[in-house]
Amino acid sequence: MKKNILIAAGIILITGISCKTSKTAVESYDTAPDTPAETISAPVETVVYIKSEKEIFEEKTKDIALSINSSPPQTVNGTDFKTPFSVKVKKVDGSPVENFPILVRYPSKNENGNISFSEEELSTDAEGIAVYIPKTPSFSCNTQLDFLPYVPTSDEEVIKAASSLGVSAPWKVRTNLARKGGLIGLVDYNAKGAALADTLSSSFLLKELMNNGFSNIGNFDIPRSMLGDRQAVYKHVNNIVGNSVSYLIYGTIKYLSPVEKNDKTYSCTLEADISCMDIKTGNILYSTVKSVTATDTTEWKVISSARAILAKELGQAIIFNM
Hints:
This protein has 322 residues and is of the alpha+beta class. The chain has two domains: 53-174, Immunoglobulins (Immunoglobulin-like), CATH 2.60.40.10; 182-319, Rossmann fold (3-Layer(aba) Sandwich), CATH 3.40.50.10610. It has six helices and 13 strands. The chain has helices at residues 2-30, 53-61, 156-164, 200-211, 230-241, 299-319; strands spanning 64-70, 75-76, 85-91, 101-111, 114-123, 129-132, 141-149, 167-174, 182-188, 217-219, 247-262, 265-278, 284-296. The strands form three sheets. It has a five-stranded mixed beta sheet, covered by helices on one side. The protein has a five-stranded mixed beta sheet with strand order 10-9-11-12-13, covered by helices on one side. A three-stranded antiparallel beta sheet has the order 1-3-6, with no helix packed on it. Helix 4 links the parallel strand 9 and strand 10 (217-219). It is elongated and about 105 Å long. This is Lipoprotein. It comes from Treponema parvum.
């Protein structure tokens, strides 16, 4: 009986030890340090900045300046310019820029005062100079020639930026008819719209043209009834003078507004509608409509002033367009 009791106690002891060991293992697992979390890196995008055409152009030209190197005096239709046109390109420190692309824009046609332009590409030499030698002028005009950086692009912003760096030189070609003989037949009208018998405006224009080198030129009477009929005017002139002159300047001078008094001054506006005819062919070489406003101290003076101003503007237009 005693032996059995000991065995039972041994079983109990072993069982107790076994339970205690299990509890310790559980506690040890619960208190183990946390396992570090795995880090996943997201892919980094590379942003590439692409410069615009304008930015690239501005970087290339930021330290560059253009200037007119040479510009010839005015010439006559059919006569070469005495010297070429040229432009110089240099950096801000004054050093020349070689092989710099230049665009030259020059007049190529004059259709009754409307100028068309053509373009040509040039390049600067070792001294930073690009030269343009124009062909013999075949028409008269008063305009300009432009030099600007050449950029092969259709981007309006780049074209605008290039134009802002451009430089210009006067291009003046006078008519070659100044000394070939001509007639002036302008009809003046009063403020009420009636034609006048005098030739005041013709005389003002005659004086203006003669002061600018015209010769063998004089006033000529054009019947009022013919003014609107070019063929009638042509036949009338040919019947009287034949081919002894080269051109006829004719038209009307009318009031756009009557003489007005403003405090101590007077003002009025006159309008000229004129044509320049080739007497040999009857073709119209040039026509224009111009108006001017004058102010003066008396009614008579203001009319005279308006005619003088109008004659000066007409004279310049004829010299560079006929």
